[in-house]
Amino acid sequence: MTQNVDVLISAAYTPAYAHPGDAGADLRAAEAFVLAPGDRATVPTGVSIAMPDGYVGFVVPRSGLAARHGITIVNSPGTVDAGYRGEIRVTILNTDSREPFSIAVGDRIAQLILMPVSRARFIPVETLPGSHRGEGGFGSTGHN
């Protein structure tokens, strides 16, 4: 399913899918940065979008940057609400303890995934119905 999304570009690059069937469209840096080991920076993309109501954009890390350089997104996934019209900026973190990481203008720094959203109506209750898992939290399934 293809959804048209209005995109305002103040940089040289429009979000684009690298391959047919890709879920995430690449976001590129609109400014150059050097991240020292352990540093983070909020990188502008030069992209603002207008999604229809009922959609959300998730900004997620690029797996290649994470695997090869230890670059991730601090608040992953970053959430872009349908009503937001400002520039998409990506706060990235260099998790490598030894090597700085350079970002040039036009480098792919993250991916944007657009998805439909279901809205919930939250209803206060005295108790919740039971389930097989119950109140088990982190690690409660007993499997690695």
TrEMBL record:
It catalyses: dUTP + H2O = dUMP + diphosphate + H(+). Coiled coil: none annotated. The keyword Transport does not apply. Substrate binds at residues 62-64, 75, 79-81. Keywords: Hydrolase, Magnesium, Metal-binding, Nucleotide metabolism. Its EC number is 3.6.1.23. Residues 14-142 form the dUTPase-like domain. SUPFAM superfamilies: dUTPase-like (SSF51283). The keyword Magnesium applies. Its cofactor is Mg(2+). Belongs to the dUTPase family. This enzyme is involved in nucleotide metabolism: it produces dUMP, the immediate precursor of thymidine nucleotides and it decreases the intracellular concentration of dUTP so that uracil cannot be incorporated into DNA. This is Deoxyuridine 5'-triphosphate nucleotidohydrolase. It comes from Antiquaquibacter soli.
